Amino acid sequence: MKRNLFLHAALGAALIVLATSVPSSADRPKDSGAQNLGTPDYGVCRGTDPECYHDWGNFDPATNGYRVLVYSRTAGPRHAHLGPALPPGLNPPLAPENAAQNALVKLGQQNGFAVDWTEDVTQLNSPARLFRYNAVIFMSTTRDTLDDPAQTALRQYIRGGGGFVGIHNAFGTEYNWEWYEGLLGGANYYDHGRNQPGTVVTQSRRDASTAGLPARWDFADEWYNLVPFPSRVRVLATVDESTLPGGVRGGSGHPGHGRNHPVSWCQYYDGGRAWVTTLGHAVEAWTDAPMPGDDHFTRHVLGGIESAMGRKPFCR
């Protein structure tokens, strides 16, 4: 009898400790769905809750208009859509082969926002410099493309309410920087199959980047496989793996993601906004050369940029 009383007392004490150790709902990171519980928070507020955004008044579009910075520095393999490496400085001359940079400049000209471009890391080495831009676009950057001052400046910029857009090989960048992995949605590039046609499935047409897109549209890409898999994000578009003639298995053996293979998503992160897409491999996606789905892709990217910089509602 005494032994049973002792066990009951011990069990009750353990339950009290457990109950007081579990964080309340107010203490848990805000999350868009129960399936994301237990995923990393990277030590910041992240997810689809607008309360994770910090509006410190660092941007005044009514006075300054809208401006973005395209950063395309590579410290590893370089995609053909980037063309030859650019010389130092801000807005160096672009060659016709700099297809992606030219396309983004044209997109701004056609839609009323200014675009600067650079591959000079010193142009990103202070928050004050970055706060001139409503969004920073990482366009197929590769490997360790930022030095320590630029990493610090980017983080302070995002914390101050800045916008981030990551396109294609932005996922092959800063592998060893955990904060950047979180900025990508808690995701990273693992491998991909061959460049091939497939069908993109629009998951929500409420977002600025998907409004007006068809439910399904043909495109061609490398269809990145991801490890880790994005979490606490709003998935905007996926690829239907059954439409890939060459399959989705990557060069390192990744089997793909089945019925839930995301290609674009958005989130609030550490005070800022982040919109990312793995799409954009083909040169033709950035030029006037005909390619199935290129108009839909352009509209998708434009909406992502406009929402990340606060010109349109974000992550709907």
TrEMBL record:
Superkingdom: Bacteria
GO molecular function: hydrolase activity
InterPro entries cross-referenced by the UniProt entry: Class_I_gatase-like, ThuA-like
Signal peptide: 1-26
Domain ThuA-like per the UniProt entry, residue ranges: 96-306
Keywords: Hydrolase, Signal
Name by which UniProt lists this protein: Glycosyl hydrolase
